[in-house]
Write a structure and sequence with these properties.
about 400 residues, mainly beta, Methylamine Dehydrogenase, Chain H, five-stranded mixed β-sheet, five-stranded antiparallel β-sheet, about 10% helix
Length: about 400
């Protein structure tokens, strides 16, 4: 498949107490300098990458980790990490044009889709891991205001949904068309109009619904602007809560413009969403509320304005979120990106069975680098991967060592 560049215009752009004590004693101080080289400390290890890592994702076989980079000397890049014995090492970094953000790999492991500033780049995974120069199959370049930031692939590997933060939309791309014809304008199905600053995307386990976040609701929603007193960084700011949006996936594949099923206020600046394994609960990081807001997904469909069932205070400005241990725990990346973006931060570990107890649901915190951004778990479920954006490191956390 040849390298092809197309343009698609958009309107805008936790096992015992002793073990825990030993683990905590081994962690670096949260106020220490950000790790600058590969090192290991108890259950946490770090690997330095060439620039600011945004996202990390494993190949389905767990042999490779792909890390998207911003601020690289060559623009955007994808760093390839490979496991040798029990250690991960940096093998190479390949260019992909503009700064790279969200990553998604098809479930068959054949294609890597990267959000690259104003579009997406499509890579052949086999060629990428074997070092072939033809690994980049092509790019779909959108309007220069699109600000593509996140992507998610349907469980059947048919479509990729891309959140365009600057365009107030989620773009739908047909991967079957890419397989048949290459990266071409025909692969773009259309766009789904959503809230201002869409970022997070997560599918229901059955693939029927896609959940999306928007940093703020447009005036057309008719939601009242209220004073936010929950986050110190925004005390006194008058704002409208951002939405959690439910999208009908099948409809989005044929009629994107009319695929939104419902929406509900999800806190101030909701930026990421994760779904429980049973599909009944959605967890949203509300960055300006310093909370994880929790929703009953069944009620979202019938009474969306009353679907929120809890809110857990976590660290400052949480961004990344992931559900682990079969849904028993969730972990957030507390970025503190407004007040101390260049100081080491934390991850919060939350017991999902204690959501109603609010702050008491937080089991512990784990040290992280500066501006921890995205979270990913390796296919074997044993290791949490954290991209510390401002530290320039990828962090590996042994999940068995958490409370």
């Amino acid at each position: 498949m040849p390298v092809t560049t197309t343009r698609f215009a958009l309107a805008r752009n936790m096992i015992s107490l002793l073990a825990v004590i030993a683990l905590v004693a081994s962690w670096p101080s949260a106020s220490s300098a950000a790790p600058q080289a590969t090192r290991q400390s108890g259950a946490v290890s770090y690997l330095t990458v060439p620039a600011n890592p945004f996202s990390a994702i494993s190949s389905p076989d767990g042999q490779w980790i792909f890390v998207s980079l911003n601020g690289w000397s060559k623009g955007g890049g994808i760093s390839l990490l490979h496991q040798t014995a029990s250690q991960w090492s940096l093998v190479r970094t390949v260019a992909c044009g503009a700064g790279a953000a969200g990553l998604a790999v098809t479930h068959d492991g054949k294609m890597l889709i990267a959000a690259v500033g104003d579009g997406v780049a499509v890579f052949d995974v086999l060629k990428l891991t074997s070092g072939q120069s033809s690994a980049l199959l092509g790019t779909v370049t959108e309007d220069d205001r699109a600000g593509t930031v996140y992507d998610a692939i349907t469980p059947d590997d048919r479509f990729v949904f891309v959140s365009d933060e600057g365009a107030e939309a989620v773009t739908v791309i047909d991967l079957d068309t890419v397989r048949r014809q290459g990266v071409s304008p025909a692969a773009v199905v259309g766009r789904i109009p959503v809230g201002l600053g869409p970022v997070g995307l997560a599918f229901s386990p059955d693939g029927r619904y896609l959940y999306s976040t928007g940093e703020s609701a447009p005036a057309s929603y008719g939601w009242q602007a209220v004073r936010n007193t929950q986050a110190p960084v925004v005390v006194g700011r008058t704002a409208i809560e951002g939405p959690l949006i439910v999208i009908d996936v099948r409809k989005a594949e044929i009629d994107p413009a009319n695929a939104v099923v419902c929406k509900t206020p999800a806190g101030y600046c909701p930026v990421r969403v994760a779904v429980s394994p049973d599909g009944n609960t959605a967890y949203v990081t509300a960055r300006d509320s310093n909370t994880v807001n929790v929703f009953d997904t069944r009620k979202l469909l019938t009474d969306p304005l009353h679907a929120q069932i809890g809110a857990v205070p976590v660290g400052a400005a949480p961004v990344g979120i992931i559900v682990v241990d079969g849904g028993k725990r969730l972990i957030t990346a507390n970025s503190n990106r407004y007040d101390h973006p260049n100081q080491n931060q934390t991850l919060s570990v939350v017991d999902t069975a204690r959501i109603s107890s609010r702050a008491k649901a937080v089991l512990t915190t784990v040290p992280a680098g500066a501006f921890p951004r995205e979270l990913h778990v390796t296919p074997n479920g044993k290791t949490l991967i954290v991209t510390n954006f401002s530290s320039g490191t990828v962090e590996f956390v042994d999940l068995a060592s958490l409370p």
